[in-house]
Design goal:
It is built from 5 helices and 2 strands; from the N terminus they run H-H-H-E-E-H-H. It is an alpha+beta fold and about 180 residues long. The protein has a domain of about 40 residues.
Length: about 180
């Protein structure tokens, strides 16, 4: 008995009289089919940044902060409700109250990484590094939009001064201040 010759004889007899059961064993449900993977990967997420897109791009200053003077009050002559000046006379000169202000420069950032193995494995699908850079830019645009809308949310607001009672001498009738 020769196992090789016996196996060959069985294969020849099976091929000589094909059976429908063997031909129908493999079908599309078995998963032995081609897999249509379209390249590049589809980026199906929203990148809506209308405010950021409308802002002009201007060069920043130098140093670590932007500095300016702010006019906090202006005082003219007389009362605002009486702007009339008698004939032949002049109004008093205005005066201003100013303050020095500054805002430190901050950095917005986002990071990603791709291993050399991932770059090599995806070379026939898409340029992994270029798409990663593109997605990083889109994510940073979304962060910039939120920064423009919400500002720096990590800073706490100051405490407002106590509210004066509108009824002089009747402090007992004033509502209590809100609980913080």
């Amino acid at each position: 008995m020769n196992p090789t010759l016996d196996t060959l004889d069985l294969v020849k007899s099976a091929l000589g009289a094909p059976d429908d059961r063997i031909a129908k064993t493999i079908n599309t449900g078995s998963g032995l089919v081609a897999y249509d993977l379209q390249a590049p990967a589809k980026n199906l997420y929203p990148v809506v940044t209308p405010i950021r897109n409308a802002l002009p791009r201007v060069g920043g200053g130098t140093g670590t902060a932007s500095n300016w003077r702010q006019v906090t009050a202006m005082t003219g002559s007389g009362f605002d409700a009486m702007g009339w000046v008698p004939e032949g006379q002049r109004s008093g000169q205005m005066s201003y109250t100013t303050a020095t202000k500054s805002a430190s420069y901050v950095t917005l950032g986002e990071e990603d990484a791709a291993t050399y193995e991932a770059i090599n494995a995806g070379r026939h699908l898409e340029d992994i590094q270029a798409r990663m850079t593109f997605r990083l830019l889109q994510k940073l645009m979304l962060k910039e939009e939120m920064a423009v809308l919400g500002g720096n949310a990590t800073l706490q607001l100051g405490t407002p001064p106590p509210r004066p009672c509108p009824l002089p001498g009747a402090a007992a009738h004033c509502p209590p201040p809100p609980i913080r």
